[in-house]
Specification:
By secondary structure, this protein is an alpha+beta fold. Helices cover 46% and strands 12% of the residues. A hairpin with a 5-residue loop joins β1 and β2. It starts with a helix and ends in a 6-residue tail after the last helix.
């Protein structure tokens, strides 16, 4: 599983980079002029085997936003920038993670990496050995409910992915992710 998946990730990430170059530069330019703060935001995430890593995203929230999962914010809309709403709607804020896929810290498909302070999610992933696989830019949970899933539902979906991994499943998840992004489906904010 690991060699085929790594080759697939490396091939897709490197093949995507020339196509993503101009959109990445354009987004950087718009972020620079649309709001104050860094263009790229790094958050501490939990990766394979519980290892911590810094995950880059285009910044979509205002400075001094608490570092918690956005669904835990009291009023997430007041923290999201105007341009950030667009980036989130089309999941463009996730694009910088393609470099972590090429580097080998993330996979294109896998469980979304937990924030360092999502202790319940981290615990359940460890307990169910879900942390034995690299986190992904997208995953089985993202195409089956994304922002509207409870932690228990996410764990069940991540467990399914762990037990049924195949390149065919990864390709299906990538295609369904693109379809859901196009429809702006299952995105709460």
């Amino acid at each position: 599983m690991n060699f085929k998946k790594r080759f697939f990730d490396l091939f897709l990430s490197i093949a995507a980079m020339p196509f993503l170059f101009f959109p990445l530069i354009f987004i950087c330019f718009l972020l620079f002029f649309s709001s104050r703060g860094p263009i790229i935001f790094f958050s501490n995430r939990v990766g394979k085997d519980g290892a911590m890593f810094s995950m880059p995203k285009f910044r979509t929230m205002k400075n001094n936003t608490p570092q918690v999962a956005s669904h835990l914010l009291k009023d997430p809309q007041k923290y999201i920038t105007n341009f950030g709403k667009i980036l989130r709607k089309y999941s463009l804020d996730e694009l910088p993670q393609i470099f972590l896929v090429a580097y080998g810290k993330m996979s294109i498909v896998g469980p979304r990496p937990a924030l360092f302070n999502q202790y319940d999610l981290i615990y359940l992933r460890k307990k169910n050995k879900i942390d034995s696989i690299k986190p992904g830019i997208t995953g089985w949970a993202q195409i089956n409910g994304r922002d509207f899933l409870s932690i228990e539902e996410k764990i069940k979906l991540d467990q399914y992915y762990l037990e049924n991994f195949s390149l065919k499943l990864d390709i299906y998840i990538i295609l369904m992710t693109l379809k859901r992004i196009n429809k702006k489906q299952d995105i709460s904010h």
